[in-house]
Specification:
Layout lengths: L6 H46 L8 H32 L8 H10 L1 H19 L8 E6 L6 E8 L3 E5 L5 E5 L3 E6 L5 E10 L4 H17 L1 H4 L7 E8 L3 E10 L4 H18 L9 E3 L7
Antiparallel strand pairs: 1-2, 1-5, 2-3, 3-4, 6-8, 6-9, 7-8
Helix pairs in contact: 1-2, 5-7
């Protein structure tokens, strides 16, 4: 091959040799990443289809775990593909990896603190997945380092580095896994709806308990609610005493993630039943829907 002498000839020679190889490497990496994303999407869609087309009202723990694992594997494979592509491009450009050891050492020392954060996030994400703390579709409340308020919502994506969730306002919250201090899973195995009924201190508590028991029996007999309940709602009795009011607690075990729906339905039934009996319910009738117990 004739040795090019002009800059144009050198550029054309570089483009025909090195440039073409780099372009093909990038194109191959992009195609592989697209294929991996497509394959991962097909797998998660099939997992979700088993839930949507089945008779189950909630996702099983196994399906939520499989969905999360599929997302993590997809993320890891894509990361590996890009790392391999970058190494090959550097080699094509005549920058051997061995010669980059010294600069990489300096850069690693400069970015050491940030690298520690990344490693911490990845390790935390690994344990979240392997320990099945939560998965796709779970309703969770997460305490974050340095944040005043907890983040609560439905998990949409779990990778080794971050957890993405959508709250009740439709906002997407992204939390690095290493900054998660505590994760409360509100939809694992089963949940509990807790309804505290405030009534006047002068009310007949025995009568109130009887009315609330009847509400629980009627709720468990209702087809629309019975499929969400694991057993009949229970009247726990007086929970707290005040100067002007008494709080009576009703609890119900529900399917995971259904405690909110059941709690709202029970509040409506309780208010209507007490009103029919001439018992006034104070305005702060509330449900502690955050409590959850796992078997």
């Amino acid at each position: 091959m004739a040795i090019p002498f002009t800059p144009v000839e050198r550029a054309l020679d570089w483009a025909a040799d090195t440039g073409l190889a780099v372009a093909l490497t990038v194109l191959t990496a992009v195609l592989v990443v697209r294929f991996v994303n497509w394959g991962g999407g097909r797998i998660t869609d099939r997992i979700d289809a088993n839930y949507r087309l089945g008779d189950a009202l909630v996702r099983s723990e196994a399906s939520k775990h499989r969905h999360s694992v599929a997302q993590v594997i997809t993320w890891v494979v894509i990361t590996i593909v890009w790392i391999i592509a970058i190494v090959q491009i550097l080699d094509r450009l005549g920058l051997p990896i061995g010669s980059l050891v010294a600069p990489a050492t300096v850069l690693g020392a400069a970015l050491g603190f940030g690298a520690q954060r990344v490693v911490q996030d990845i390790l935390a994400g690994f344990f979240i997945i392997t320990e099945r703390q939560y998965g796709f579709g779970d309703t969770v409340r997460i305490a974050i380092t340095g944040a005043g308020d907890d983040a609560e919502g439905v998990i949409e994506d779990v990778t080794l580095r971050v957890t993405r969730m959508r709250n009740s306002d439709g906002e997407v919250i992204t939390v690095p896994n290493g900054q998660i201090v505590k994760a409360v899973n509100l939809s694992k195995d089963w949940a509990r709806a807790v309804v505290d009924v405030p009534v006047p201190a002068t009310a007949d508590i025995n009568r109130v308990n009887e009315v609330l028991h009847q509400v629980g029996v009627a709720a468990f007999s209702d087809r629309s609610l019975k499929k969400l309940l694991l057993d009949e709602p229970t009247v726990m009795g007086v929970e707290s005493l005040g100067v002007d009011e008494v709080s009576v607690r009703v609890v119900a075990r529900t399917l995971p993630g259904k405690q909110f729906q059941v709690g709202r339905a029970l509040r409506v039934r309780v208010a209507a039943a007490l009103r029919r009996q001439g018992i006034t319910v104070t305005p702060d009738l509330a449900t502690d829907q955050g409590e959850e117990r796992a078997e």
